[in-house]
Amino acid sequence: MEKHPQPQRGTNGDVIWHRVGAFFIDSILMGLIWVPVIIVGAALGDLGFLVLASAGLVATLVYGFLLEGLYGYTPGKYLLGLVVIKSDGSNCTIGASILRNLLWIVDALPTFNLVAMVSILLTDDNQRVGDLVGDTVVVKQQ
């Protein structure tokens, strides 16, 4: 995996549909993590489910928080040629990634990512609430 690919600054307005696609790819990949956890965990009973759910939660946190913080992208973003950077053009940090991903709670409200889409369309740098709080933008890779 290429660590922090070179961003094409100023392309954040050109990546809205790429972001949607990356979200769907990442959601499918996250589902592939959680489906076995639920199926196997249910077969193992309460304690087994708790252990596997904890492992699934760790995998989810690593997937979302650490990949963007360490590399600047998730697999979905990478496949669609996107990278997350700080608004000043520097590399995304783990702290910024944690902030932007925790705010999915707000971005997903009141329905399927409605706040995120409205925010992306109304902000000058096409940022969702998580991007605004984390001071990040999503741009094309060079």
TrEMBL record:
TM spans (from-to): 20-41, 47-66, 102-122
Membrane topology: Multi-pass membrane protein
Xref: InterPro entries: RDD (IPR010432)
Residues of the RDD domain: 16-133
Cellular location(s): Membrane
GO CC, alphabetical: membrane
Keyword terms: Membrane, Transmembrane, Transmembrane helix
Alphabetical list of Pfam families matching this protein: RDD
Domain of life: Archaea
PANTHER family hit by this protein: SLR0254 PROTEIN
Identification of the protein by name: RDD domain containing protein
UniProt organism field: Halorubrum hochstenium ATCC 700873
